[in-house]
Amino acid sequence: VQLQASGGGLVQAGESLKLSCVASRSLLPVAAMAWYRQAPGKQRELVARWLSGGSTIYAGPFKGRFTISGDDAKSAVYLQMNSLKSEDTAVYYCNINPHSRDYWGQGTLVTVSS
What we know:
The structure is a single chain. The chain is mostly beta strands and 114 residues long. The chain contains no helices and eleven strands. Strands 2, 4, 5, 6, 9, 10 and 11 form a seven-stranded mixed sheet that branches. It has a four-stranded antiparallel sheet with strand order 1-3-8-7, with no helix packed on it. It is globular.
């Protein structure tokens, strides 16, 4: 199974991007889906998690600016990012957990210029 992440790119500070991640085959039933990011020289960190049933969890710095959504029927997860800042520059990784193991996308680079 491969997770294909897309939607990254170069934007100006204050602009928006939407990331998408779709699995190459169904991973139903999905327990959780998430987005992580890794900035240059830093450890990978959780951005947001979507839980089966639709509830969401956000790491503190991203509340109010980022919105995670999921479509478990499609084994897909999305991340709407608004009001981007230069410190949001990172490689963003999607993660899907279908109750058995973690699947990771290859990462999509987001670069925010100030």
